Every structure is written in C-alpha cells, then in structure tokens.
Amino acid sequence: MSFNPFGIGLQALSLFGSALLDPKQIQDLQEHRFRQILTHAYQHSPFCHLKYQHIDLDTVALIDLPVMHKAELMGQFNEWICDPDIALDALKVFISNPANVGSLYLGKYVVWESSGSSGASAIFIQDEEAMDVYDALESVRQSKSEFLQHALDPLLLTERVALVAAINGHFASNISFELAKSMRGYFASPFTSISILDPIKKVVEELNAFSPTIIATYPTAAVVLADAILEGSLTFP
C-alpha cells in the first residue's frame, strides 16, 4: 500500500456528496453500508459467522447485535479475523519489533494496538480503502482554505510537523505518523516525534527547537501545551 491521492479523492467526493443528501437518504445510505459490513463479517469471519448464525442479517438493528469485548475477540483472534493469511502469533512477532513501526504487515495492512486503558489491549488492522476513508475524513473536516492547501500539498512538503504522543509502540497516532513520514521519502526531515511521557519542560524545549507549523497530539496534551504558550515557555513562531 502507498499514498493514494486518487483513492482519498474519491472518498472525499463521496463524503461531500453525502452531505447533500436529505435525512432519509442519509439513513438509507447508512443502512446499506451497515448491511454490507455485517454480511462481509458473517461470510468471512468464522467467529462472526457463529455469533450471527441465528440472526436475520437483513433486518437486525445495530443495537440488537451481540456485544463483543476486546478480551473475547483477542482470545479468538484467528477465528475473528476475515483474512485467513493473518495469524496472531506472526502478528505479535511483527509488532514486537520497533523497526516495524510504520511498516505494512504482509505488505498491505496497517497495524496498531490499543493501550489497554480499559483493562484489555487489542490489535487492529486496516487495509488501503479504510486508510483512504480516514484520510478523506481528516481532509473534509478542515476549513476550506486548509482543505485547498492540503489538496495542493498532500504530502505536507511545506509543513514542519511534530507528533507529541506515545511513540514507543504500534499505537494509532504513532503508526499514522511514521507512515506519513515514509510516504515522503527524502523529504521526511521536517517531521519529528516527541514522547508524551517526557517531562513537559523537555517537550517544550524540543518543540521550541523544532519550531513546527503543525502539532499532532492528544486533546489533554494540547491543553497542557496551550498553558505553556500562555505562561510564555512555549515560544516557537
């Protein structure tokens, strides 16, 4: 998988088109997509096939589907997953290697793991189409001027981007950031990662030294950085 502006563009057009629909049309579109996902899971995941075997997939409401918890899904991962080429043992070996952060599993899947803050961690996998949807959603959420700027500079070649996050594992923000860096090849230097686990003084010093034009971080960390700006310690232009 590589950066796919065509795929992202198609998804963005679909999102813009959906915004023009009336409430009934939006509801019908949601229903259609829900049935597609449900049917795919039933047909390709042995775990979901067993879970849904006594359910009418054409009429069941989302709220009436059986609840699945992360511990249960991870306990039956090889039966839960829809691609039989993916096996949990091999996947664990892949994510245990820090060198694989930002690399694609089996050459086509983006892999990330949850932090386990709810008491159970899990591994999640996205394909190229899913990533196109995520990138398109990020694009259309921007203002018109930001959207145009991103369309003209999709690889952020004119930006200096800093990630302030947990950077010691296959976490979603870290993986996305490293993938973005790898897509830019020789132009990756204006990207830097800063550990959210470092003391705030060290984080501020690194940000001031790097002078980013974009900071990607968690909402709680953004509040701390905003306070540092008000206090005068975070001073980059």
N-to-C SSE string, H for helix and E for strand: HHHHHHEEHHEHEHEH
Share of helix, binned: 40-55%
Characterize the largest beta sheet: strand count, sense, and whether it forms a barrel: 3 strands, parallel
β-strand number: 5
Q: What would you say about this model in short?
A:
The chain has 237 residues and is mainly alpha-helical. Helix content is 50%, strand content 9%.
Overview of the structural elements:
The chain has 237 residues and is mostly helical. It folds into two domains: 5-128, no CATH class; 155-231, no CATH class. Helix content is 50%, strand content 9%. It contains eleven helices and five strands. It has helices at residues 5-18, 23-44, 46-51, 70-75, 77-80, 88-96, 128-140, 144-152, 172-183, 200-210, 219-231, and strands spanning 110-113, 123-126, 161-165, 191-195, 214-217. The strands form two sheets. It has a three-stranded parallel beta sheet, sandwiched between helices. Strands 1-2 form a two-stranded antiparallel ribbon. α1 crosses α7. The longest helix is centred in the N-terminal third of the chain and has 22 residues, at 23-44. It is globular and about 60 Å long. The model has no long low-confidence stretch (mean pLDDT 84).
